[in-house]
Design a protein that fits this description.
Mean pLDDT of chain A: 95
Radius of gyration of chain A: 17 Å
Largest interface: A-B, 79 and 78 residues
CATH topology of chain A: Aminopeptidase
Order of helices and strands of chain A: EHHEEEHEHEEH
Low-confidence stretches of chain A: none
CATH architecture of chain A: 3-Layer(aba) Sandwich
CATH class of chain A: Alpha Beta
Oligomer: homodimer
Structural class of chain A: alpha+beta
Helix content of chain A: 25-40%
Number of helices of chain A: 5
Distance between the termini of chain A: 60 Å
Strand content of chain A: 25-35%
Chain lengths: ~170, ~170
């Protein structure tokens, strides 16, 4: 692998939804969570570029002439901190293909996100990391990210949501 | 405390921003995190009811004639699951004033949120819980919420965002 490589980081458009989904599937494979992926390109189109936009995405784009055009991606949206009263840039997925790691692509994506967070006057940037993913944790520590060790996220799936919605007090 | 109580759950409007902030401050006190609160009513107005709306809020409203009008609140927004391809209803804050607990107000707020999540075709509902808050954890377990035990959230504050934004690869 060459130690320097040409690519640009650009915002994804509606034309990119199937490429984004392919990258998400590769990320899921790396996270050993492929069985959880039920998304479709149509859902990515509808929820990113339809009436309401629920996400934005940056692509590390090496150009059309390569066998592998996209080296990595960062998918994000804005949440809100009630303590800060400001939006938080929440990074849902950050992924660089294994064969393109160690070239600074992940760092470039994060720098661009930090610039976007400043433009949007965000009080925080946040993302979740799998506890076994030590290379990622080391990387995040280096940029002074702090683990929220005393919090646990709880989740309801669609079935549990339906049960709750139809329940009575 | 009466075992039944009259209130309605209604969406907050722009007129409610200072009441929402008061409730957030009471929540922060309960969580022993008051020192983290720097939000202002103006920021709540701008980020909830300005050009971009970063949150929505439900209020448990007992009516104007009471000394304490608002018994609790739920502040939420939509994130996005790349694995589901669908929005997630993310519950940032759920809080019932200590003196109004045990009356089903928290459950009522959650039921309403689940109904909203279904209307918006969400694939998930999620929220974070402090690990020492056992009463909350017990409550969430009862409605079949599942803890994401193998994930940790990392956070950058404004200073770290600035440093990252200004760094080079």
């Amino acid at each position: 692998m060459a130690s320097s490589i040409q690519y640009k980081i650009r915002p994804a458009t509606e034309e990119d939804v199937s490429d984004i989904l392919s990258l998400v599937k590769k990320l899921a494979e790396y996270e050993k969570l492929s069985h959880e992926v039920t998304a479709t390109s149509e859902l990515f189109r509808e929820n990113g570029f339809g009436k309401t936009s629920h996400y934005s995405c940056l692509l590390a784009d090496g150009g059309m002439n390569l066998d592998t055009r996209y080296f990595g991606f960062a998918l994000y949206f804005y949440t809100f901190s009630t303590f800060k009263g400001k939006p938080t840039l929440y990074l849902e997925d950050l992924f660089v293909l294994p064969e393109f790691r160690g070239l600074g692509i992940g760092k470039s994506l994060l720098i661009r996100l930090a610039q976007i967070a400043r433009e949007k006057k965000c009080g925080r940037m946040e993302w979740a990391v799998l506890d076994w993913n030590q290379p990622a944790i080391d990387f995040y520590r280096k940029i002074d990210a702090v683990p929220m060790d005393d919090w646990t996220v709880f989740r309801l799936d669609e079935k549990a949501i339906r049960r709750l919605a139809e329940s009575t007090r």
